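Hi Y.,

Following your request, here is the sequence exactly as I used it, all 166 residues.
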Amino acid sequence: MTWRTLLRTRASCWTILVRLIVGLVVFFPEGIQKLVFPAILGAGRFARIGIPYPDLMGPSVGVVEIVCGALIVVGLLTRLAAIPLIIIMVVAIVSTKVPIWIGQDFWIFHLPKLDRYGFWSMAHEARADFTMLLGCLYLLIEGGGRCSIDAKLAGSAPDADGGRVA
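Below is the corresponding structure, written out as tokens. Let me know if you'd prefer a different format.
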């Protein structure tokens, strides 16, 4: 895979809306909050969920969300930035939504105190998680769109045989 292949995107400029909701509305501010409010949203929350090494994982996930969120907002290395965020969302779903669905602890992850459990409770609690997962999958597949730094760089990146692409 070449840099041009990684950066190339045929998606419309409207992809910026997906980038803004994924990067600016969710991941960038959530990452900051994991660092600013660690007891509530960072290491403390990770410990309550049952995530191993919460004092390391909380701030690490926060930094990844800030950096990848910012990259997605500007459309730089969009596909690469989407990958760790996809992993974060899969872990979030498995660690927090599966216990709600089954109504008990799951593997190492603890069941939160809610008024109700089961499929509909999980579906309600997971709506933002699934939205972010699908948004990140879209960005992984389509790239940052024509109005991204990726698109500008792909236009001047060397192709596979070293020549410039117009």
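Confidence is low (pLDDT under 50) at residues 159-166.

Thanks again,
Q.
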